[in-house]
Amino acid sequence: MYEIKKYTAILFTACCLLALPAQAKKLTIIYVPLDNRPVCDAYVQQTMAAVGCNIIMPPEKYIAGHDNSGDAEAICSWLQHKAPKADAAVISSDSLIYGGLVASRTHQIPVETLNKRLKNLHDLETSLPIKLYVFSTIMRTPYTSSGNVEPEYYSKLGPAIFTYSQLLDKGEQNKLSLLERLKKQALERNLPRRELKDWLDRRKKNLNVNHELTIMARGNRFHYLAIGKDDNAALSATHMEARSISRNTFDIPDKKFQILPGVDQLGLLLLTRAYNEANGVTPAVYPLYSRGAGPSTLPQYSDTRLQDSVPQQITAAGAKKATNISSADLVLALNTPENGIMQDTTAGSNQFFASPANKDFILNLTKQLNAGLKVSLADVSYSNGADNGFMDALARSGQVERLTAYNGWNTADNTIGFAIAQGILSVAMSPQQSNKLMRQRIIDDWYYQSNARNRMIEFFRQKGRENLRYNLGKANEEVLKQVTSDCQNLARKYSITHDTAFKLSFPWNRLFEIDVEIKK
């Protein structure tokens, strides 16, 4: 019986390897990121380098950072005149039009300048005659926001503006009750007129830019266009504007254009798509959910249930959804909240003990791994970090090392996009390379985001210095020393990271993200 199982596993693994050609092409791809955060920049480059892909980016000084917007004109000029020869280009249109993601929410760029930059992007196909994969964003609608990533007034007016946007969305669908109509009128009277106009005008500019991009996609100026819905909700201005774009693009096939939930994962997703298309492969991905609500889960910061968003992201990666697990090149395992209600990783329930649902899913994953399946884990039971109880039990069971990839960062859509991309690309990586990427994400998403960061946030709260989380200032070195110690203590507890040497840094001088550099 053992020999039969062993033979079956070997045969299945051999079939999976057929998802990529025997000798994958050595590609050079131009990449213009949203900004220089690790999830858009360093982590993306490292993932593509692991499959032998040469990523060429504009000069660093042109790319948006934590205290500066990118130089949109310089990036465009570089693409037109100085970019080296490449097989394809993956481009953030926000970087070419606004100067980056944060700039897209805060800019005061005149319409004439936006139109000029749109024309430059339209003409890029002529000066850069390669496959252009472009991704844009629909301006987000957060409930609250701090840390200079929105206009200054949003820190105070955010909740009221968010409520107003919900009523706008509902009104556009002719679903407002009498009480809601009166509430909308009251908000219009009481919200500061100048600030509300500023917010609405910028949204209008953003929507017009995205409509123009879809016209370019329809006219084959791009090989593929993705528009990402930044942080939003089922009722929000972002949701309303996505609906407007959808009405005008219903006839464009998804092989040319998609609207997707999430933004920060799009750079890696589109690079994966370019890689798959260049190698002539369409990997089959099978979503496997933990028990409970599973695919019907509506994540935080999203307007799309997983049953719809997961297939959309699989398509965006240049892959297809497998009809059954036995025909899959990759199993996308999704750890979801059993009751379908997603909370932040700071929730009191995120403790180091496994639930019955956690244990049941670990048994299921073990079964798939024993069958020789490649499994990429998207840990989306909580937002902004890992499920402590699930990951502790999974690591102690010895199954983490057997995974193809792991992700558990930021929003569910961000996590899933990276899990799809890194899972697919792992077929062309050495075991050492894929293991290194997985250890990086475990240190970032589990040790830091779900534990070290949250302990530091609580410490700041107790000291009455909560704003430090958005700008560490002179506390950077001291805070970094503490979170590094916390992460190292956790790393030593688990075999997957026991001997890992790593260095942490705060690239945007805030607690929200770190850069994890694996030394060995």
Unreliable spans: 1-18
The Cα radius of gyration reads 23 Å
End-to-end separation: 39 Å
Q: What gross morphology would you assign?
A: globular
Number of helices: 17
Mean pLDDT: 95
Number of strands: 15
Proportion in helices: 40-55%
Strand content: 5-15%
- Largest sheet, described in full? 6 strands, parallel
Class by SSE composition: alpha/beta
Biggest β-sheet: strands ordered side by side in the sheet: 2-1-3-4-5-6
Please provide a written account of the structure.
- By secondary structure, this protein is of the alpha/beta class.
- It is built from 17 helices and 15 strands.
- The protein has helices spanning 2-17, 42-49, 72-82, 93-97, 101-106, 111-127, 154-172, 178-190, 193-218, 237-249, 266-278, 306-316, 356-370, 388-396, 412-425, 431-462, 476-493; strands at 28-32, 54-56, 88-92, 131-138, 224-229, 257-261, 284-289, 320-321, 330-335, 343-344, 375-379, 382-383, 405-407, 502-505, 515-518.
- It has a six-stranded parallel β-sheet, sandwiched between helices.
- Helix 11 packs parallel to helix 15 (412-425).
- The radius of gyration is 23 Å and the shape is globular.
- Mean pLDDT is 95; it is low at 1-18.
SSE blueprint and pairings:
Blueprint: H1 2-17, E1 28-32, H2 42-49, E2 54-56, H3 72-82, E3 88-92, H4 93-97, H5 101-106, H6 111-127, E4 131-138, H7 154-172, H8 178-190, H9 193-218, E5 224-229, H10 237-249, E6 257-261, H11 266-278, E7 284-289, H12 306-316, E8 320-321, E9 330-335, E10 343-344, H13 356-370, E11 375-379, E12 382-383, H14 388-396, E13 405-407, H15 412-425, H16 431-462, H17 476-493, E14 502-505, E15 515-518
Parallel strand pairs: 1-2, 1-3, 3-4, 4-5, 5-6, 7-8, 7-9, 9-11, 10-12, 11-13
Antiparallel strand pairs: 14-15
